[in-house]
Write a structure and sequence with these properties.
This protein has 333 residues and is mainly β. It has a domain of 121 residues. The protein has 1 helix and 26 strands.
Length: 333
């Protein structure tokens, strides 16, 4: 049974499947709205017009993450750039927007002054510690990047790993524990994947390359690394399984004869890579449950290119984006 949803941007189902968060535009202003799925009645509304909201994600059943940007002057020549940063909204509290990962780390502070977020430009959500309702974000510190577990309702945070100034990212498991770290030294063109050992970080892969032709996307259902790469003998950029013990490529996971992989999908509840897509095609799901969902959607929404954009933790409720040549893209649940 499917029902069309009203005009919205970035709709996202809460983990318990009871509420919907989304971005809406009205009278030239932008809002983050939350509604009950039972009757679509709006229960919370937050004006976010001061920034450019890009995405809204549930950190837990009572807290939202807002990923947003603003155009700021940067450098002596006052060059305009888009600066990205994460914000938190406590739905059970004061509904104020709190910028996360500020240097002062003032717990319980009100909405922060915008414009001081260049240090967080490109801040990337690494994953979640769902048991604690925390989001995992890196922050650039004086001595290198640090991975924090952040409570989005008040910006309380704990450092869970300290990288180096060459750290480019982390891979975490279903419990939010760092298992792999990616390093790139542009001065030496040195690319490294580190594996977390019992006591220390251990080198898994090293390569000398001017521009790394490898992207590390996360773990698959069996705990092996999913990497994106272009074969050295040519071909399209695809996904491959890398052994977490030897660093050797074991087998292709998803490749296309004529197109590069454009999107890789991660389950927000397990931090596992569950699907991928090339431009213009239906997503390919590696998870059997999601693959069955997609097959059912293809049958119901023939000719509308259905794709799942959000689901509850138990996957009983799913938001589907559909497209047709005679109307704008729409969301259905």
């Amino acid at each position: 049974m499917f029902a069309a949803l009203p005009a919205m941007e970035a709709p996202n189902i809460s983990p318990d499947g009871q509420r919907l968060a989304f971005i809406a535009q009205a009278a030239g202003n932008a809002f983050v709205l939350v509604s009950n799925l039972s009757d679509m009645k709006v229960t919370s509304a937050v004006d976010v017009s001061v920034m450019k909201p890009r995405d809204v994600i549930w950190a837990n059943d009572s807290t939202l993450l807002l990923l947003a940007s603003e155009t700021v002057n940067f450098g002596a020549r006052a060059r305009l750039v888009e600066s990205f940063a994460p914000y938190g909204i406590d739905l059970a509290g004061d509904l104020k927007i709190r910028q996360l990962l500020l240097k002062e780390n003032r717990v319980g502070s009100a909405s922060q002054t915008f414009g001081g977020i260049i240090a967080l430009q490109g801040a990337q959500l690494v994953g979640f510690d769902r048991a604690k309702g925390l989001a995992l974000f890196p922050r650039r510190e004086q001595d290198g990047r640090v991975l924090y577990a952040v409570d989005a309702k008040n910006d309380r945070r704990d450092a869970i790993d300290e990288g180096t100034r060459f750290t480019r990212g982390w891979v975490v498991d279903e419990n939010g524990k760092p298992r792999f770290r990616i390093e790139y030294n542009p001065q030496r063109d040195f690319f490294t994947i580190l594996r977390r050992g019992e006591k220390n970080w251990e080198t898994l892969v090293t390569d000398v390359t001017e521009i790394p032709e490898m992207a590390v996307h996360g773990l698959d259902a069996n705990g092996k690394l999913v990497v994106g790469m272009r074969p050295k003998d040519g071909g399209r950029f695809g996904l491959y399984i890398m052994s977490a013990e030897t660093g050797k490529i074991e087998q292709p996971l998803f490749t296309h004869a004529t197109l590069d992989v454009a999107n890789v999908f991660t389950d927000p509840y397990t931090n596992r890579v569950v699907g991928a897509q090339v431009t213009g095609d239906t997503p390919e799901w590696f998870d059997a449950d999601l693959r069955k969902h997609q097959a059912d959607l293809n049958e119901v929404f023939r000719g509308e290119s259905p794709r799942m954009t959000s689901w509850s933790a138990d996957r009983s409720r799913v938001i589907v984006a559909t497209e047709r040549s005679d109307r704008v893209p729409a969301f259905t649940m």
